[in-house]
């Protein structure tokens, strides 16, 4: 039985950051469903593996094309990328972790707003999906009793991110988080004020593990697992606990947010399973007994937050045939069985 979609098969979809950790999986999902993808990348040469290794057939028959988008304020680059597009999946984001909010926050907001403005001028655009993060909703770990209902915003990040200089390196993560807060808020403000003809959704992504699509793909948060596996405890200092979601589930939920007529105006939570770093260590110990690993954390606690994932689970079933999110154990093991990351 065919699934009703907002966009017909063969439609051209813009995926920003197509060579990235999440972007590559979204690109794969769309191509395998018969859609055409125009992927933006910062460097064609570094992203060439998408065309030569992962999707050579699709590159040959023009189902996949890569375009340069390395300047978020270059209106020509953005307009060329958006031309003739039916749907936008905006995943790319400034991720240098520059601690100066005047750079990081401003650029993150400008990126999404510039794309929205361009999309509004292109009559072919019908759907727009933005990749947001749990950090846009709450600090990690969440306060006890926190429940994400689609109206929550991380109110605590602003004061930390916009505190006066010096902008020391340890402030890079909070500047990144505040950038995502303000960018998603700008996304919804654009819809409220401009009433574009296209529909919009955001996907609220948590801590993402799972195998990279290719050894040259950006490693993103999957690198944290490799660091811990290589006896480097640094990632365990970022936060004690969070919510895990597999990158393959994240990709499916982006596809659903783009193509499912029942999902509109949603902040779709990509929330799999609560975990702390000791849970990760237990899985790694079982996977490779005797391997030297970092010491367990003392009383890492739990994430504390909840949300209603019924809509997300329905989407996983409808678009992936899955009854539930991929388990933490499978996500961790598959990450380590995939392309390795040094560190």
TrEMBL record:
One Pfam family matching this protein: Epimerase
Give the classification, highest ranks. Answer: Eukaryota, Fungi, Dikarya, Ascomycota, Pezizomycotina
- The UniProt record lists the keyword Oxidoreductase: yes
MF terms (GO), sorted A to Z = oxidoreductase activity, acting on the CH-OH group of donors, NAD or NADP as acceptor
Could you say which protein family the record assigns here?
Belongs to the NAD(P)-dependent epimerase/dehydratase family. Dihydroflavonol-4-reductase subfamily.
UniProt domain NAD-dependent epimerase/dehydratase: residue ranges: 13-260
Q: Which UniProt keywords apply?
A: Oxidoreductase
- Which PANTHER family did the record assign? ALDEHYDE REDUCTASE II (AFU_ORTHOLOGUE AFUA_1G11360), NAD DEPENDENT EPIMERASE/DEHYDRATASE
UniProt KW Membrane keyword = no
Organism of derivation? Trichoderma harzianum CBS 226.95
Any idea what this protein is called? NAD-dependent epimerase/dehydratase domain-containing protein
